[in-house]
Amino acid sequence: MNHMMVLRSFSSNEVKAHRGCTRACQAVACMVILAAACLTPLLLGAQTLDIKQTATYRRVKAYLNTVPAIDTHDHLWPFDKLPAFVKTEQGRGVNLAGLWRSSYLKRIKTLTPWKDGQKFDAWWTQAKHDFQDVRAASLYRYQAVAFQDLYGIDFDRITDAQARELNSRIYHNYRNSDWLYDVITQKANIELMFNDPYWARLDFRTDYPFGVLVFNVTLLSRGFHPSEFKEPTDDPYYFAREKNLKIASLDDYLNLLDLLFQEAKKKGAVCLKTTAAYSRSLLFESVPKDRAARVFGRARSELTEAEVKEFEDYIMWQLVVLSAKHDLPFQIHTGDARIQGSNPMLLVDLIEAHPQTKFILFHGGYPWVSETAAIVMKHGSHVWIDSCWLPTVSYSMAKRAFHEWLDVAPSDRILWGADEHQAEGIYGATEMTRRCLAEVLAERVDGGDLTEEHAQRIGKQILRDNALALFPQLQNRLWKDKSKLTPEPKQ
Ligand SMILES: [Zn+2]
């Protein structure tokens, strides 16, 4: 209804109803009715424009805050090796520069580097201008949310004095690991956090009591020659030497892979992870074993690119088989990365050929969130979508994606993760996810398309229950229902 229609219906009907009144009464009543008739659509419009202002959103969000989350993806280094540590005037510590440099904002914006031992003011004088073109970017906003909620600082309007104070409070907080534990397990209300240790893939260490080990298999596809591996902690041949195993043939290497799976599982790994999409196409073709065998044992310098790809493709198919054999669901980075070859559609043949393997498509396949939905629609019996990272890459795309995924797939197929490197980032990403989910669910409730009870159930599924169903062994790791205490720090 537009305003002219309101005026017309008002003049024909409302005036008739007031015929018995005096002229003054009519005039006042008419003005009140006219004002109400004109304002109501505007107010309703405002309400639908910003769901966050509604009571429904506030209730759904408050409920989601109470759900102890199972965060299926992060990269939280051991405390003393956190990439946010820098050399300051007071000594080694985490400061504001350290938090920004270990955030994802640097993907879209060059940030003023921190120079060893420099004065904070010298850095800030330049660095404060880093943010002027990214104020609306989700990769900036998730950190700003953390500074607001954890430190009470409005980073959009931060003064030099506040920046100085924030910097010293961060430094103080990181003098030991208590702050990190408090932020992750209490303030972000995360009960368990999957940790992908890309800095030491075959170390099989869990550095935090709330951490869940992920077996990162990215480099194993390149195992045609020992020279492919730079670090012992990433090197399957190093692992073989430690176990006195001779790796002289492809069959030996396949046997070694099986042993690594057994070892990972013994050490508590619950899933696999590959980030192959950063270095190559996600099109893994079916390659006969004899072709892979011809590549095995030769250094990269002796091989063509096509031969390397054939070996990698062959091993990926073997990893997918081992994933089913050892019941370790496969987290696969899809979308973003090397965008020439990271569309999740490239995985469909691999997925279709392995119905026993549980595939988890990371990052919702951003920007191909609809393609990811179509894959789950088609192969939902063994494919999950993990929205990790998406709300911090693009909040509005994440909203659209959650809506679309809930349109086309059962709600038990969707997971989430913060995908972060430090406590503030984990908090910000978690809060962005809870807000995003609350907006989507509240919109459905207010639109009359979902009961609030069902909305709560879906929110809890995505934040917690779906991960517990997919990884039932985590039931033994739950600790929040037993005690209100943070797990004992190992430091
Ligand atoms: Zn990640």
What descriptive keywords fit this protein?
8-stranded parallel sheet; TIM Barrel; 48% helix; 491 residues; 9% strand; two-stranded antiparallel ribbon; 3 domains; alpha/beta; disordered N terminus; binds zinc ion; single chain
**What spatial order of strands do you see in the largest sheet?**
1-4-5-6-7-8-9-10
| Tally of domains | 3
* Strand and helix order: HHHEEEHHHHHEEHHEHHEHEHEHHEHH
Helix content: 40-55%
CATH architectural category of the largest domain? Alpha-Beta Barrel
Number of helices: 18
What's the count of strands? 10
Mean pLDDT: 91
Explain this structure to me?
This protein is α/β, with parallel strands linked by helices and 491 residues long. It has three domains: 3-49; 83-173, no CATH class; 190-477, TIM Barrel. The chain has 18 helices and ten strands. The protein is globular and about 65 Å long. The structure holds zinc ion. Residues 73, 75, 196, 419 line the site of zinc ion.
